[in-house]
TrEMBL record, chain A:
UniProt superkingdom: Bacteria
Alphabetized PANTHER family for the sequence: INTEGRAL MEMBRANE PROTEIN, SLR1174 PROTEIN-RELATED
Protein name: ABC transporter permease
Transmembrane domains' residue ranges: 20-40, 60-76, 109-130, 142-168, 180-199, 233-251
Keywords in alphabetical order: Membrane, Transmembrane, Transmembrane helix
TrEMBL record, chain B:
Pfam families in the cross-refs: ABC2_membrane_6
Species for this entry: Vallitalea longa
Keyword Cell cycle: no
Annotated transmembrane regions: 21-44, 50-69, 118-136, 142-168, 197-216, 228-250
InterPro entries named among the record's database cross-references: ABC-2_transporter-like
Protein name per Swiss-Prot or TrEMBL: Membrane protein
Domain of life: Bacteria
Keyword field: Membrane, Transmembrane, Transmembrane helix
Length: 267, 260
């Protein structure tokens, strides 16, 4: 456990170095946030029918999405890890006296956390002081906020356990581009990043709620805005834990399978 | 032009060497805008219009911006890798050759897998065209073609502009994504739905509005005032490339080798 922790800490400090990149990232995220909100505002303004999620909840959803983008996007890539596999340096990783699944898990987790620490707080802070149609609202009460935090962290762990499968697949395909594209496009749609899940038609929702992608970001964001009531939130958190367990066990199993067949490519 | 075609042939051949990977990537590229399309489709199942634009009219906006983006990305990708050319010093080699710098950088890379993306855009466009009521006349057809050309020129101009920045910064800048990906994302919907500052920025600074919004107002008979201005707007978009090329030439003159 201690070795995982130090890998984690090292990566975290490493990731914090890129401050200028983070500022550029924040500006980009704001631009996208404004564009998305304006689109939804135009939709809500030109139609009077009632919707499954309110305008204010949608705005909050979008700002949370923009500030925690590094937590939730599936195409987050650690180029070093891909290089390890394709260049053959994976051999060094394998001789280390530490389980590779846990090692990579903590590396990926730290990479995402450091990215988010630099970006999310400034974005959230500004989003709170924006003028009315764009302003992000506070959660309805303290308990909701605590539930949100718990479910956000669990969501992050689920995302990392999903992306582990992308890295495992690279052992088989030797090229990350294909699986990245596939996981990215399909997963992000099912996670509610293209449009929030409440806007989707019923038949898609039925599929979405069976798969693990929606517990990564859609669920925590809706808990925050009060769209998912507290008693349902607790059930949601339990599903997150269940998914995390299933995905980690399955991931370790697959990892063992591919490592048995791994051929180190010269070097 | 002959040189350009030669570059095209060589690079197409080299990419076709890995045939399966090529086909898979094309397929993947097909599905990227497909999920965006599905998103808009589902939104319109909940809401029936956006600022007076119907689903098929928005689909015209959407398909045109994705068509021009995929074409520009396919051919102007060379500028995307430009920071690497500078860093490694390979740009020196380009400078001593007796040909224009633009055509050589252009020819350094094409991304043919974007054909999947292009195909998706064309399918959506045809579908949308069958479902909107446009009273076609030769003039409208010309305007329609000009829209596509205008879009390709604007995206190419932006690619050149961001590459030019590398002369000063050596590294590429992430903020340039606001113009490329952001422009594409924004252009999926008619420009009229956005707030004034967005509308002004994408009309007068980076003329994305000239690609689909303004000419579509003319094609769909949506505007009430001066038709001529809306008709010629794509030409303004094409002219956007001129300042970009000027800046590029300033950059080339300013260039000092990194010496590696």
């Amino acid at each position: 456990m201690k070795s995982y922790l130090s890998v984690f800490k090292l990566r975290l400090i490493n990731g914090m170095q890129y401050r200028i990149a983070a500022i550029a990232g924040i500006a980009t995220q704001f631009f996208f946030g404004f564009i998305f909100i304006m689109v939804f505002e135009a939709f809500f303004n030109s139609n009077t029918s009632s919707q499954p999620i309110s305008y204010n909840q949608t705005v909050t959803y979008i700002w949370l999405e923009q500030s925690f983008l590094v937590f939730i996007m599936l195409w987050y890539r650690d180029i070093e890890l891909f290089d390890l596999i394709t260049s053959g340096n994976i051999a060094y990783e394998l001789v280390r006296p530490i389980k590779i699944y846990g090692l990579w898990f903590s590396k990926l987790l730290a990479g995402r956390l450091s990215g988010a620490l630099l970006r999310s707080f400034p974005i959230l802070f500004i989003a709170f002081i924006l003028p009315e149609p764009y302003k992000m609202s506070l959660p309805p009460d303290i308990l909701t906020f605590i539930l949100f935090c718990v479910s956000l962290i669990l969501g992050l762990l689920v995302v990392v356990s999903i992306t582990m499968f992308i890295y495992i697949s690279v052992f088989v395909t030797l090229s990350p581009t294909g699986s990245m594209l596939l996981f990215g496009v399909l997963g992000e749609f099912l996670a509610g990043i293209i449009i929030p899940i409440p806007f989707m038609p019923e038949w898609i929702k039925r599929i979405v709620y069976i798969l693990p992608f929606h517990v990564t970001c859609d669920m925590p964001f809706r808990i925050y805005s009060g769209h998912i009531p507290q008693n349902e939130a607790i059930v949601g958190i339990l599903t997150q834990i269940l998914w995390l367990g299933v995905l980690v066990i399955l991931g370790r199993f697959c990892m063992k399978k591919v490592l048995k067949k791994v051929i180190v490519q010269g070097g | 032009m002959k040189l350009f075609l030669k570059y095209l042939k060589i690079l197409l051949k080299s990419q076709l060497q890995y045939r399966t990977s090529f086909i898979l990537l094309c397929l993947g590229q097909f599905f990227v805008p497909f999920s965006l399309f599905a998103g808009i489709y589902f939104m319109f199942q909940r809401f029936d219009n956006i600022s007076g634009w119907s689903f098929y009219e928005v689909m015209l906006c959407f398909s045109i911006i994705h068509i021009v983006f995929s074409i520009s990305e396919c051919f102007v990708r060379g500028f995307d890798n430009f920071s690497a050319l500078i860093r490694t010093g390979n740009f020196d080699r380009i400078l001593v050759r007796p040909r224009g710098t633009i055509i050589q950088v252009l020819g350094s890379k094409f991304e043919f897998t974007r054909i999947g993306r292009l195909l998706q855009g064309i399918i959506v466009m045809i579908w949308a065209l069958f479902n909107v009521s446009i009273r076609w006349c030769p003039l409208k057809l010309i305007v329609f073609l000009l829209m596509i050309i205008s879009g390709i020129f604007i995206f190419s101009g932006i690619f050149i502009l961001t590459a030019t920045l590398c002369f000063w910064t050596i590294q590429g800048l992430e903020i340039a994504n606001v113009l490329t990906d952001g422009g594409r994302e924004m252009g999926q919907y008619p420009l009229g739905i956005y707030k004034k500052w967005v509308k002004n920025f994408f009309t007068y600074i980076i003329p994305f509005g000239c690609v689909n919004y303004y000419p579509l107002m003319y094609l769909l008979d949506k505007n009430t005032s001066n038709n001529l201005l809306y008709m010629i707007s794509p030409i303004v978009g094409i002219l956007f490339i001129v300042p970009c090329l000027i800046v590029w030439n300033i950059g080339v003159k300013h260039y000092k080798s990194t010496g590696s």
